[in-house]
Amino acid sequence: MLLARHLLAGAVAIVAVSTVTALPAAASAPASRTALAGPPVCVDATNSRANGSQIHLWQCVANHTNQRLVVDGGHIKVEDTIGTGREVCLDATNSRVNGSRVHLWQCVNNHTNQLWVVKGGAIIVKDTLASANPVCLDATNSRANGSKIHLWQCVTNHANQTFVIDDAQIKVKDTLS
Questions:
Q1: What is the domain partition of the chain in residue ranges?
Q2: According to the CATH classification, is domain 39-175 in 2.80.10.50?
Q3: For residue range 91-144, what is the model confidence (pLDDT) as tens digits?
């Protein structure tokens, strides 16, 4: 009986999470591979807003300030810094080599390291878009809390490079059900 209650409670929790993370029809099309078991995973700015703070993945939490990111004029800004004297953006660093880190940095208007293009679920460093090897935001092969996010040469429809932007969260698509 206790096991049945535990399983029922788990099923109710799954339904509740699914209800909260419902996506528009266009965004909920089937992924190229089966969704991973577990809750949705989001790009997370960590608790620091200091220059050089590396971003990572974390289980999505509705309205969590570390996961509220706004695309604004090509910049991806940490929402709680918008309108302050020091807005903070996702920054690709000066390297475009596979595995290069992505971190936070004070926003600089039209700085090439901070300009991104969202195209078909991929988040591409804008200055690489017209090159033979565009570079994308990449979630690596892990979906565990704290997994680092880096840059990698874009691969069309690759699960590590396919994101859904929903209610100011950047979610790794293959973690959505």
A1: 39-175
A2: yes
A3: 999 999 999 999 999 999 999 999 999 999 999 999 999 999 999 999 999 999
First to last CA, the chain: 29
Residue 162 phi/psi, 5-degree rounding, is: -115, 120
Confidence check: pLDDT of 9 > 80: no
d(CA 74, CA 170): 15
Whole-Å CA distances, 118 to 34, 52, 64, 85: 23, 23, 22, 26
Do 119 and 131 touch, CB atoms closer than 8 A? Answer: no
The pLDDT score that the predictor gives to residue 37 is 60
CA–CA dist 58, 118 (Å, integer): 21
What proportions of the chain, in percent to the nearest 5, are helix, strand and coil? Answer: 25, 30, 50
110's tokens? 């039209």
